[in-house]
Amino acid sequence: xxxxxxxxxxxxxxxxxxxxxxxxxxxxxxxxxxxxxxxxxxxxxxxxxxxxxxxxxxxxxxxxxxxxxxxxxxxxxxxxxxxxxxxxxxxxxxxxxxxxxxxxxxxxxxxxxxxxxxxxxxxxxxxxxxxxxxxxxxxxxxxxxxxxxxxxxxxxxxxxxxxxxxxxxxxxxxxxxxxxxxx
Length: 183
Fold this sequence. Notes:
- Helix 4 (92-101) packs parallel to helix 5.
- A five-stranded parallel β-sheet has the order 5-4-6-7-8, sandwiched between helices.
- Mean pLDDT is 77; it is low at 1-37 and 39-56.
- By secondary structure, it is of the alpha/beta class.
- A hairpin with a 3-residue loop joins strand 1 and strand 2 (9-18).
- It has helices spanning 32-37, 39-57, 69-81, 92-101, 118-128, 143-151, 164-181, and strands spanning 2-5, 9-18, 21-31, 60-65, 84-89, 106-110, 134-138, 156-159.
């Protein structure tokens, strides 16, 4: 939504909306004092800052999918320490359902699980939400599985046992993608 915000100038690309109607999109460059003293601009600025604050301050919503309760617990603690909101699924079927029901920013997905495995779940998740970052986690990491999941759209493949640094780097990458997409 914004190109630049400095101490004295606001540059915005905004959609001007009347009740129920989308009128136009225009670029606005104004002195912050002018914006603050003009009702129309002030309202736009409120909407703008409310949206930006929500984007910058909200926690990432991360779905952990693994049949191991112990791994989910450990990964939950790791992700919560990185200021993420965590949802859990025990298998690929639950992951697909949660992806359809919830607003999720990222999925950590095991490959080998009962009912529906990670590769099958990845395929469905990417069909529904092709831009959703998915990080594959597996102790059964063969080069073939690695290549298959990356070709299917997985953002990363982390071999178990993972390190805190690997998880932190994956979360940082997701945060950058979410910020870039303005979600």
